[in-house]
Amino acid sequence: MAYDLWYWxxxxxxxxxxxxxxxxxxxxxxxxxxxxGVDALVDDLDARSGIRPYAPPYLVDGDMCIAQAAHILTWLxxxxxxxxxxxxxxxxxxxxQLTVTDIVAEAHDxxxxxxxxxxxxxxxxxxxxxxxxxxxxxxxxxxxxxxxALSANDGPFALGERWSHVDTSFFQLVEGLRYAFxxxxxxxxxxxxxxxxxxxxxxxxxxxxxxxxxxxxxxFNEDGIFRHNPELDAA
Length: 235
Hints:
The chain has 235 residues and is an alpha+beta fold. It has two domains: 3-80, Glutaredoxin (3-Layer(aba) Sandwich), CATH 3.40.30; 87-205, Up-down Bundle (Glutathione S-transferase Yfyf (Class Pi), Chain A, domain 2), CATH 1.20.1050. The chain is 56% helix and 6% strand. It contains ten helices and four strands. A hairpin with a 2-residue loop joins strand 3 (58-61) and strand 4 (64-67). Helix 1 (15-25) packs across helix 10 (206-212), helix 5 packs antiparallel against helix 6 (124-150) and helix 5 packs parallel to helix 7 (165-180). It starts with a strand and ends in a 23-residue tail after the last helix.
């Protein structure tokens, strides 16, 4: 039986981190809002009771509903074998996944540093300052951390020769930042060969190659987390 993945239909967003892991593992899922529309997503979320998701993405399997991308990925990894084989390593993967969540949030805040419901033009000056700090200070700090983590085992992935949900998330992080900050990424990618090698290895996974070549992969656009505003990019 296929999972139901609920996320906004016109963007990659946080839902893409879940999609990539499902595609890499060959796990069936239905991207419900893309087939049924955004109104169906809103109706489904509103109809849920008890402790329900705050927002998409969320994954439904029968009566089970789980939200938050890092939480979903950890649960899927345990069920479908793309996590680690021991508790210590799994906790380390969770730690890395949550750190990816942190940098993704910071990337989003470069174009909406004051409020998410304000237009970019209404906070452009603050965005320019936020993006400068993100490019010059935060990106290298996060990348050094991920580079060190990838050096812990032999192989291109966080676990070594075997991919995990962290690796598909590294892939999406690199792709998203290449889209949002192409000048900056061109300038610094060479300093982080393990992170880029991990990205390249994920791109060669059979399920990912098929997904990237399909219409299921939504193109980056200016409504998602990673947005390209030329005013915010520099080497």
